[in-house]
Amino acid sequence: xxxxxxxxxxxxxxxxxxxxxxxxxxxxxxxxxxxxxxxxxxxxxxxxxxxxxxxxxxxxxxxxxxxxxx
Length: 70
Hints:
By secondary structure, this protein is of the alpha+beta class. It has two helices and four strands, in the order E-H-E-E-H-E. It has a single domain (7-68), classed as Alpha-Beta Plaits, CATH 3.30.70. The strands form two sheets. The protein has a two-stranded antiparallel ribbon with strand order 1-4.
């Protein structure tokens, strides 16, 4: 059985503001080198084992591009 991702980021909604990356206490997010349809480099979920599902990334995302699951 595959475990569910703790953080889901909608790359098309993300504008790459870096707030989620900056505020993640476990450093589980980074900005991708890829570009979405709107021309922005978007956030991606990395270091999945370190994520504590704290929700800081969700709270600071002004684009409502992040979902956090416990």
